[in-house]
Amino acid sequence: MNPPHVNAETEALIQGYLESTLTPEESTRLLSSLKAQPELVGVLLDGLRMDALIREVVSQTGPVSDTTSTRFRPASAPLQVSPTRTISAGPLDEESPNVILFPQRVSAPRFWQTGALWKRPALLALAASVVLLLSLSVWYFGPTMGRPVFAELKGVDASIERGTEFVPAVNGMALRPNDVLRVGTNASATIAFGTEKTRLELTGGTELKLASLTRGKRFALLAGVVEASVARQRPFHPMILTTPQAEARVVGTRFTLTASPTATRLDVTEGTVRFTRISDEKFVRVGAGDYAVATMNSELAALPKTGGLLREWWSDLTGKTMFALHEDPRFPNHPDTRDTTPNFELQVAQTNRLGVRLRGYLHPPVTGDYQFWMIYSLREPNYAEVTMSRNERPADRVIITRTGIHGRGASQAPPPIPMVAGRRYYVEAQILITSESDGRLSMEWKPPGGTREPLTGKFLSPFKPK
Amino acid sequence: MPNVEPTIEGLVETHAGFVHALALRFAPAPGLAEDIAQQVFLEFLAKASQWDLTHDVRPLLAGMTRNVARRCWRDHTRALPEQTRELAEHIRALAEDQDVRWHDEEETRALRHCLDRLPDKSRQLVELHYFVDLTSVDIAARMAMKADAVRRALFRLRGQLRKCIQSVLARA
User: Fold this and answer.
1) From its phi and psi, is residue A194 left (phi > 0), alpha (psi between -120 and 50) or beta?
2) CB contact B96 to A (< 8 Å)
3) I want to staple B87 with a disulfide (CB 3.0 to 4.6 A). Which of A31, A177, A243, A380 is the partner?
4) CATH number of the domain at A152-304, please?
5) How far is A440 from chain B (nearest CA, A)?
6) Are residues B86 and B138 in the same domain?
7) What is the pLDDT of residues A391-448, one digit of tens each?
């Protein structure tokens, strides 16, 4: 049988019903259409069925598109956060008191598809007991239907601004929409959501406003740091945290959001967060192990978390010139050792015929001109150089400083190098010790408007060799 | 004594589609069919020792589905505005007489194939709506479009995917 003809207006109305976003007036219009054309109910049921199918596939395969690939691909790993969802409450309890936390359908296999439960009668009995216990506990603590019924506050030295009043916060106190929670400098607090496995940890000096709970949890982080562990949220009810510069939209993940007057930084530990810069509506998807910063005059991008450089060692070099490292057959792909160093520095003691390479990326915190100094203690013919790219490609690197130029005590200032915040720049240092001696090398830099200081691992991330 | 465990597992697998389809007829609202099906099987499991699994359990599952759906539907519609509740009840009355089928593994595989071949704009819509969980109104606000235009686009996109699935299954 051919599907019925659906005009454009009815298409929009049916879609509105499938999203539960119809206004009362639109509901009346769709009702009229259905009365005039009852066969439309088949279209509507098919829409519900297709939506369930699409949602299931999309949740299993991950995002449909991202910055690296526009094709569907299997998720590289299963979701880390165990999704939980209350699937019955209220009237469902009239005949059976069961209110059961259950893996959410969109990201976990159905329990009957796992099979393991049925292998042993004891396991079956145990599973039934666990289900019963969960049912009773959730029934005891109240209904949630996947939404926070109340937010529980833990911690000391915190207060709540509620309208024109200031209320001292105490354990177990419920938060209401528009409450502003202020945590003292030496305190911390946790916001919980009933039986839902979502937690917001607030460090000292944090101000957080509960904006709304009507269509998902909405918070405004006014200042400070929030570490969040968010269970998978209901469809169309993502948790949203906004700051003066950005918006983090969360379906289920673990992350840390840090807000200051000029910038917001998001660090994701598990899952994925959609991070939107409010000033221009640009957004980026930040995955596990990555971070992004929203601020003016910077590029919004998801970058690997910072923390040190890759360090590679070649020992027993045969050559005696400054080219000994490059002439060695093991260079560049087969070092004797690889590890990471937390900062841009290297120290060797009484060694000989050694080559070391530090590799990674520099993450400038603000946009502007930077200057770099190599601080070294090496006797000739020992040699060191630092190279850098104007992008993240190693092939584009050029020497920015080497032994004999701009070292400690040199009077000439190094040339400024323009850099953009939000991008990363490939950086590499090579050190060659051909004559037995002690040696030491580190880097200092001067950010725009800042002072000369050591270049620490906070602004570096290691190169990942293939 | 019969080997009960694999029988239950098999029954659940066999009848999952049946229960989902029935739940959709009795409670035609977004997300309810899956909730109801899970609740039915949990209640079925909780009373597993009472059932004679050597007989056809469909009538039993159908009865359980009807009961769970009724409770769930009552809870769902209670919070709706009057006009929306009237619409929902009308749809439910019509849906009960419909022949509904739930999707199976073949359709799931076919849909993966079809999603892979979507153009960029459609993929973005799918992601925003089904992965990020934005409604048409939210998407419209972000893409500077009218909400009705996004609704229609999603409606038609679903139709394209349905046709694609049918085409893939026919070729197979």
Assistant:
1) left
2) no
3) A31
4) 2.60.120.1440
5) 50
6) no
7) 999 988 888 887 765 444 344 567 889 999 889 999 999 888 876 666 778 889 999 9
**Topology of the domain comprising A309-462:** Jelly Rolls (2.60.120)
Give A381-390 pLDDT, tens digit per residue.
Answer: 677 888 999 9
Beta carbons of A445 and A372 less than 8 angstroms apart: yes
Q: Is A309-462 the same fold as A152-304?
A: yes
How many structural domains does chain B have?
A: 2
**B44 in contact with chain A, both atoms CB, cutoff 8 A:** no
pLDDT the model gives residue B76: 87
Asked if residue A13 has pLDDT above 90, the reply is yes
DSSP track, A357-405:
EEEEEE--SSSEEEEEEEEEE--TT-EEEEEE-SSS-GGG-EEEEETTS
Q: What pLDDT sits at residue A358?
A: 93
Of all residues in chain B, the one with the smallest CA distance to A62 is B131
The residue behind tokens 């799918």 is: B126
pLDDT for residue A227 is more than 60: yes
Residue A332 · residue A447 · CB < 8 Å: no
Average pLDDT over residues B85-98: 91
DSSP reduced 3-state for A72: coil
Instruction: Kindly state whether residues B16 and B69 are assigned to the same domain.
Output: yes
Chain A residue with minimum CA distance to B6: A118
Specify the pTM. Answer: 0.46
Task: Say if B47 falls within a structural domain.
Answer: yes
- What is the spatial distance between Cα B89 and Cα A156, in angstroms, rounded to a whole number? 50
Tell me what ipTM this predicted complex has: 0.92
- Give the single-character DSSP code of A317: -
d(CA B90, CA A121): 45
Band the pLDDT of A362: cuts 50, 70, 90.
Answer: very high
